[in-house]
Specification:
Largest sheet: 5 strands, antiparallel
Shape: globular
Number of strands: 9
Order of helices and strands: HHHEHEHEHEHEHHHEEEHEH
Low-confidence stretches: 1-80
Mean pLDDT: 84
Helix content: 10-25%
Strand content: 15-25%
Oligomer: single chain
Radius of gyration: 23 Å
Number of helices: 12
Structural class: alpha+beta
Distance between the termini: 35 Å
Length: 457
């Protein structure tokens, strides 16, 4: 896996008219940015920020960008698009800012944030001799850098990679692997929920691409913005932590469809229909750690399970549409359960066909993974697809960077995966090749860094 990262940044000021993420994580279409007001505090006047530049992109140039990226989804009226609307669409995507601190009631960004177009997952191991104090200094640097980048600020000694772009929904999320606690003398503060995941029959795990002391998830709606953040964080780690592995992923670009839709994976299936929603009454209870946690520093945090799952696409694509839908238990075109309705229609797991067999087969993926089949167990799935070229036999090295969030991995991921492991029809088309489990603490308080209650508590 390749290794990347970046440098420190001096804080700057937001460009006038820059948008912050709303409840759905996307900005509303911003008005044209006003000219920056003169400085009155004696500081030198700011250069145009990345968001200011983006907001004043010429309409014709912006339209050219959107034609390929938005697929005609942006229009002044049905089926029509104007250069002005296209410019607004690009500005909206680029100027959306996700807060670094207290993104949702104290939780880190990148958990409930809407899926971004580009993602990087990276794990580090502490360097020999790096102790708890060194780890705290690194998390302090990383937190400062992440906050500046997510706000769209440009560092003094910058590479210029993302100079023209706004924050583009950038999120940076930090977590601790089980091995981190022993290496920093914090074994007594390791949560029970970080006990190793059990072995599953479908596992073919590569230890060099699994686990790690420290884990970072980066997401953005612009690939250069995401790479810029990755490069910055890697450079900040120099001398304290060494790259263990990196994985790169992608999703559909916002605005590429005519209306907001659940994402599709590389099998062409709608993926994420039954995801818990922040509006659910028990959402926080399922996804975030409560006050009864065995480690108080994790209150408000979450646990991330990360799996690199290669899809056997050549085998899958040989199956007829009917066979594929039976394997999943849902229609491929609209995600509706085979028992009828729309994507959001509840599955009728007790429905039988004229042959007396279940309409949704007993081994269908949707049936086995459903909360109803797992004593209510649920997790928030927030994956990225990946394609790392082709294998020696010509098959694509592609699939899903599966990331799921939960308050307790044993009662969520492990419970569901054990059941899938025993008879999921989809398992024959998947290979689990890497795995990691990470404790993701709550967002840093103002003036603090991520993980301070653990490292200095």
């Amino acid at each position: 896996m390749s290794k990347q990262t970046s440098s420190k940044k001096a804080p700057g000021k937001k460009a006038p008219g820059a948008q912050s993420a709303g409840p759905d994580g996307r900005a509303t279409v911003p008005a044209p940015a006003a000219a920056p007001a003169p400085e009155t505090d004696g500081a030198p006047s700011l250069e145009f920020s990345r968001r200011r530049l983006l907001g004043t992109v010429g309409a014709a140039g912006a339209a050219g960008l959107v034609v390929g990226g938005a697929g005609g989804a942006i229009g002044a009226s049905a089926g029509q698009s104007s250069a002005q609307d296209a410019a607004k669409a690009v500005t909206t995507i680029g100027s959306t800012e996700v807060p670094f601190r207290a993104a949702r009631a104290g939780q880190q960004a990148g958990i409930t944030t809407p899926l971004q177009a580009t993602g990087h997952l990276v794990a580090f191991d502490l360097a020999p001799g790096a102790d708890r104090k060194a780890a705290a200094a690194l998390l302090r640097r990383w937190s400062r850098t992440a906050e500046e980048l997510m706000a769209g600020h440009t560092p003094h000694a910058d590479t210029g990679v993302a100079l023209d772009a706004g924050p583009s929904s950038l999120t940076v999320t930090f977590g601790f692997g089980p091995s981190f606690f022993g290496r920093t003398g914090l074994t007594k503060r390791r949560p029970v929920a970080l006990d190793p995941l059990p072995d599953f029959s479908a596992d073919a795990l590569d230890p060099e691409r699994s686990n790690g002391d420290l884990w970072i998830q980066i997401g953005a709606d612009d690939a250069l913005v995401a790479f810029h953040a990755l490069r910055a964080l890697q450079k900040e780690a120099a001398g304290t932590a060494r790259l263990r592995w990196q994985m790169n992923g992608f999703n559909r670009t916002p605005g590429a469809t005519a209306r907001p839709m659940t994402a599709r994976n590389l099998m062409g299936q709608i993926d994420g229909t039954n995801n818990p929603k922040p509006s659910d009454q028990d959402f926080d209870e399922r996804i975030f750690v409560g006050r009864d946690a065995d480690q108080d520093w994790m209150h408000g945090g979450s646990y991330a399970v990360v799996r690199r799952i290669r899809m056997l696409l050549d085998d899958w694509e040989k199956r007829s549409l009917h066979e594929q839908e039976k394997v999943i238990g849902r229609r491929k075109d609209n995600g509706a359960p085979l028992t009828g309705g729309s994507e959001t229609t509840p599955m009728r797991l007790d429905a039988s066909g004229s042959d007396g067999l279940p309409v949704i087969p007993a081994n269908a993926h949707a049936r086995i993974a459903a909360p109803e089949s797992n004593q209510g167990a649920a997790m928030l799935r927030r994956p990225f697809s990946f394609h790392d070229g082709f294998r020696e036999d010509g098959a694509p090295d592609a699939g899903l960077l599966f990331i799921c969030w939960q308050a307790d991995p044993l009662r969520a991921f492990t419970q569901v995966q054990r059941k899938l492991d025993r008879g999921d029809a989809l398992s024959r088309f998947l290979r689990h090749e890497a795995s990691g489990l990470y404790a993701v603490p709550p967002a840093a308080e103002p003036g603090d860094y991520v993980g301070r209650p653990l490292l200095e508590g």
